[in-house]
């Protein structure tokens, strides 16, 4: 029997509460990005994240989630997602690290991820990060346009992500992992695939909040979960990139809740006018 989707629709006030959680995540990721360097351990990054989140009056969404032991996921090189921080995992020159972070503020969640180069990284690997980021923003833009037209459906996001990646080159698009609904729980319906045909799934309408998160590899897309029950790696050992933003559909546009500028720099007038946004330098 097919799973019946239960999509939580938020009021504008509730989306505003999610924005507060999203900014906590944005601040934590900004602090971690600033200290990524050779010699820094993933446990160091985890400590910064937890300190930042708790100082804001929030709690880490990840810590304790189904037994997960940390506040971030810190996936290095061939690790795609869900790698557990460790004092023994020390970043080295040339590494690529994906940092996934979530915060729960007054019962509302924010969730985002960045991929950061450690020191001197080959230009083609840095290019992968831009490919994933562009695909994420293409998915968010598709959601905005679809909601504005009144005809958009969930897989329009998936198709936009896939199309953006395919135009950029030969990259593996990881299957089985992707975006999700978010709100009073970190993971909610619907699951947002990073590839697929457009025009399918539920309608995109105001009140829907989604985490959009492409994951791509330099080689084949096949992945496997390690014995720790969390860490997902590429089977062929190729480097992977993972990026993510939480966004909400409002009456007059989308709001990227985990971006400091709400998404305006990348999306322009597709962004809601609900929140005054400072000029981007």
Structural description of this entry:
The chain contains five helices and 15 strands. The chain is an alpha+beta fold and 281 residues long. A hairpin with a 6-residue loop joins β7 (179-181) and β8 (188-192). α1 runs antiparallel to α2 (42-55) and α3 (123-149) runs antiparallel to α4 (154-168). It is globular and about 50 Å long.
Low-confidence stretches: 277-281
What would you report as the Rg, rounded to the nearest angstrom? 18 Å
Structural class: alpha+beta
**DSSP strand content:** 15-25%
If you average the pLDDT, what whole number results? 95
- Give the strand order of the largest sheet, numbering strands 1, 2, ... along the chain: 8-7-9-14-15
Can you count the beta strands? 15
Any idea what the shape is?
globular
Please write the string of helix (H) and strand (E) elements. Answer: HHEEEEEHHEEEEEEEEEEH
| Multimerization state | single chain
Helical stretch count? 5
Q: What share of residues is helical?
A: 25-40%
Give a nutshell description of this structure.
The protein is α+β, with helices and mostly antiparallel strands and 281 residues long.
List the helices and strands and how they pair.
Layout: H1 12-35, H2 42-55, E1 59-60, E2 72-76, E3 79-81, E4 96-105, E5 108-117, H3 123-149, H4 154-168, E6 172-173, E7 179-181, E8 188-192, E9 209-212, E10 215-217, E11 223-225, E12 232-234, E13 240-242, E14 245-250, E15 253-256, H5 264-267
Antiparallel strand pairs: 1-4, 2-4, 3-12, 4-5, 6-10, 7-8, 7-9, 9-14, 10-13, 11-12, 14-15
Helix pairs in contact: 1-2, 3-4
